[in-house]
Write a structure and sequence with these properties.
α6 runs antiparallel to α7. The protein is globular, with a radius of gyration of 20 Å. By secondary structure, the chain is of the alpha/beta class. It starts with 38 loop residues before the first strand and ends in an 11-residue tail after the last helix. 46% of the residues lie in helices and 9% in strands. The protein has a five-stranded parallel beta sheet with strand order 2-3-1-4-5, sandwiched between helices. The structure holds P1-(5'-adenosyl)P5-(5'-thymidyl)pentaphosphate. The site of P1-(5'-adenosyl)P5-(5'-thymidyl)pentaphosphate has 25 residues, from α1, α6 and α10.
Length: 295
């Protein structure tokens, strides 16, 4: 599960981990002196196996002597991450449970609930802030030649919020008043655009590994249902938005991996899409791109 602290191992010290502060830019006209790292993002619905596979890839690359760092979004260790975590975890608690877990009274239990009941817009922006906080560090790592693996990224930000606004019958937020689409979101594509706004200009990944799995299969996995969004109908809505985002990215960057197979088979499927991308990035010698959804 992605509930614990992110794994941020130090880059493995190897000869190809070099620093090149002038190497990153928005364009390919400023080629780095040495290859930058590859930015690999994993996406998918809840319990699709992202944490298992990002850890496996990290370990495989480390063993091969490739400097690599694993980031996880939301990063629950930062101040925004703690707010996000409280929001995700607290909804399932009844008032009695909140009192059992430390709230001194009914009123205190209500106050705890209120603190974690953010509007859909507010939690959306918090998720985005949580990514922006990490951009400088990710950019620095990539420039140094370290490969960065992200367990979820901006595509999750869009998929989960857009699913709330466009499939309101399954919105898992507790207040229907808070789940209205923003006023500027008058149709599906406006809603999608509104959801992308907060993340526009983030680092663009070199590849998105999409963990493709039927929500019913993911729901059968251990500990499903502990968090706010782990409801099968809502996950179907999320999956349908991911589908749209994948079509927009195109097959060059968005790589679907059948995530319903055994962990070993999925691991090989992931390697099959990641290895050629890493080779391409090393050969191209282009700087980082900070132009996500800026078209
Ligand atoms: N969210 C996130 C937003 O709304 N907006 C955003 O901007 C972002 C970034 C928390 C929630 O936040 C939402 C999305 C989420 O609802 P999370 O902490 O990443 O995000 O939550 P999950 O995706 O639910 O993370 P999990 O750790 O729970 O699921 P994973 O990482 O997809 O799956 P994993 O590897 O932990 O495996 C789940 C279970 O399945 C087993 C594992 O052993 C484990 O028990 N498993 C397999 N079983 C059989 N076959 C396989 N191939 C298996 N692979 C793993």
């Amino acid at each position: 599960m992605a509930r614990s602290s992110p794994t941020d191992p130090s880059p493995t010290p190897t000869g190809n981990s070099s620093s090149s502060s002038s190497s990153a830019s928005n364009s390919s006209s400023d080629p780095p002196a040495s290859p930058r790292g590859t930015f690999i993002v994993f996406e998918g619905i809840d319990r699709s196996g992202k944490s298992s596979q990002t850890a496996a890839l990290c370990s495989r690359l480390t063993t091969a002597g490739v400097p690599v760092v694993l980031k996880r979004f939301p990063d629950r260790t930062t101040s925004t991450g703690k707010m996000i975590s409280a929001y995700l975890e607290n909804t399932a608690q009844t008032k009695a449970e909140r009192i059992r877990n430390g709230a001194a009274s009914d009123a205190a239990a209500d106050a705890t609930a209120e603190e974690t009941e953010l509007s859909d817009q507010a939690i959306h922006v918090l998720f985005s802030t949580n990514r922006w906080e990490a951009q400088t560090a990710i950019k620095r790592l990539l420039r140094q030649g370290t490969t960065v693996i992200a367990d979820r990224y901006a595509y999750s930000g869009v998929a989960y919020t857009a699913a709330k606004f466009t499939t309101s019958a399954t919105n898992p937020t507790t207040s229907t008043e808070d789940s209205q689409p923003p006023p500027t979101a008058t149709n599906f594509y406006n809603t999608l655009s509104w959801c992308k706004n907060a993340d526009r200009g983030l680092l663009t990944p070199d590849v998105v590994v999409f963990m493709d799995i039927d929500p019913a299969v993911a729901a059968a996995r251990a500990e499903y249902g502990n968090e706010r969004y782990e409801k099968i109908e809502f996950q179907r809505g999320v999956a349908s938005i991911f589908e749209v985002l994948g079509e927009e990215e195109g097959v060059g960057r968005w790589k679907k991996v059948d995530a319903a197979r055994s962990a070993e088979e999925v691991k090989e499927g992931v390697w099959g899409v990641v290895e050629p991308v890493m080779q391409r990035v090393a050969a191209e010698r282009r700087g980082c791109r900070e132009d996500l959804w800026l078209d």
